[in-house]
Structures are given as structure tokens and as C-alpha cells.
Amino acid sequence: MSKQQMKAIGLLEYLPVDQPESLLDVLIDKPEPTGKDLLIRVKAISVNPVDVKVRAPKNKTENTPKILGWDVAGIVEQAGPEASLFKPGDEVYYAGSIARPGGNSEFHLVDERIVGFKPATLEFAHAAALPLTAITAWEGLFDRLGVSPHTEHNEGKTILIIGAAGGVGSIATQLAKHAGLTVIGTASRPESAEWATNMGADHIINHYEAFLPQLEALGLATVDYIFCLNSTDTHWMNMAETIAPQGKICSIVETDAPLNLTLLKNKSVTFVWELMFTRPLFQTPDLIEQHKLLNEVSRMIDKGSLRTTVAQILSPINAANLRKAHGLLEEGRMIGKIVVENFK
């Protein structure tokens, strides 16, 4: 008996996004859930820099379509025999695992331990903008930097968020502000500065200029935390100069060259990486923490203390619209998130 087919968007060659073959409309086998997996009917997806990095031109081809997409909102269609957190009909959202096929397909398999209940107050499109950036921001702030979620512990403390108007920056700014930190965001254009301010940033500085004079103009000699969401290499000297003694720096952006960690030694500064795929990639014992934090983000959204970061919605979900979304991301001027909704 032949397997049921489903629509998906995938690639066979790694090509520039302006070439029609860079992302293709394809038909692939509809999967079936086993173990702790859920089969999700995909309603909306969001595009992230990781999609662009994976798709970027390289001398490699695939024998079967490679499916991207690590931001999904949808409905549980079927639960695997070991799944216990969700049931068919539940509305969910999640980022998934880089080690498995992505969610740019009509149906998608995901481990229930990295899935959260969709915010009840959001449509699928607005929920799809959240998971990857929310997990990254949450883990970066609370797990890696060790920021306390309790406002009384953060009185007088400051955080510099480099790239505050992007997808992760938009959520990190809100979470940091909610935790009671004074937030200094970086932005280089009036529209990105306005966006970051609307997300809760107390001050804005320009990341194309030296940080220290701009911070000093705000009455700050140093900052307690730095969350780097853009070009770690470019900002390394500025970060080393402005981080407080015994402060902490977290980055999500890999480097093109080795970093001079000695610059942090005299201040006893902590430097830590954040990759939201680490838990699912290595199946860490605390994998279920992503389920918990996504549920907490849902509660914050429904309470009104956190808001989604959609900047643009495209429809339907097809190769043409995903190529358009990738192209917009590659321009490097994105504010907020791009979402694509509805298979047709």
C-alpha cells in the first residue's frame, strides 16, 4: 500500500534565493508518529536566519528534498504511543530540532517535550513568529546569563542587547524589561530604533559607533549583561570595553575568527554561547524545559505582559513565498518576524 503524500517546500541544490530552484514545491510521504512524537497539521510557519544559513549556496546536492523551517504553529493530528502531554485537536507551537526535517510541510513530526500550547489569544500566524526567538531569548537571558526572573533581584542592573529590533532582540527586550532590568538596545535606523523602543528598550545606542561614549552619555560606565544577537566579531572590542567587572556576555552568533578571550580576564567576565537547538540536538536530560518555557511564554502573551513580533505575513505557504521571505531576511534589514500561513 503506497504512503499518503503531502505538500512541502524543499531543496535539492543549495542555490542563491533569486533562482527558482533554490526552494521547490514538492510532494513527500506523510509521516507517522512513534514514541513521544506528535504529528502536527501545520497552519503557519516563520522564517529565521537559520533557514537562510542552511539554504545558502554550497557545493552539495540532496537525493531527496531537504525540508527547512524551524518555527511552527499548528494542530495536533495524532500523538505517538508514548506521548502524554498533548492530544489530537490541541493547538500548539514550537521550533523543532535542527537534526530532523523542518516544518515547511503540511504535516510535521516533533518530540512533544519541545512543544508548547499555543497562546489562546493569538491566531496561528502570530503564534508562529514566537517559538525559536522566544526559546533563544529565554535560554539566553535566564539559563546562560543567569538573569533572575524576579524583578527585585535586578534593581539597578543593566543589559545591553545588540540587535534589539530583530526577532530574538524583540523578545529579549520584552523579557529583560519584564524581569526589571534597564534595557539598552542597539539599532542603526530610525524605524528599528522606534521598534525596539516600542518593545520596551529604555535607551537606544547605534551599533555602528563606539559603545562606551554612547553609554557614558546615558550616565553609564559599564553594563552588567550583554546579549549579542549580531556579529560577535564586529562587536567584540566594544563588548569587552563596556562589560562590568564580573559581568556576563552571551552571544548567539558564531565567529569567523578566534576571539581574544584574554580581553575578559582582568574583569573576570563570563562568556557563554546560546543555541536553542542544543537541547533537542543532544537530547539533554532537561529537554522538557523547552515545553515548560513555551507554556510560560503563552501565559505571558495571554496575560498581556509579552507580545508577538510579526512584521509581515505572506500567504499561502509555497516555494515562491518562502523564497520571498528568505530574500527579505538576506537583506539584513528585518525588523520583527516574517510569517507564511496556510497551505492551499
Automatic annotation (TrEMBL):
Organism: Paenibacillus hunanensis
Family: Belongs to the zinc-containing alcohol dehydrogenase family. Quinone oxidoreductase subfamily.
PANTHER family per record: QUINONE OXIDOREDUCTASE (PTHR44154)
Primary site of residence: cytoplasm
SMART domains found in the cross-reference section: PKS_ER
Cited NCBIfam families: adh_fam_1
Domain Enoyl reductase (ER): 10-340
Name assigned to this protein: Zinc-type alcohol dehydrogenase-like protein
Keywords: Cytoplasm, Metal-binding, NADP, Oxidoreductase, RNA-binding, Zinc
Pfam families: ADH_N (PF08240), ADH_zinc_N_2 (PF13602)
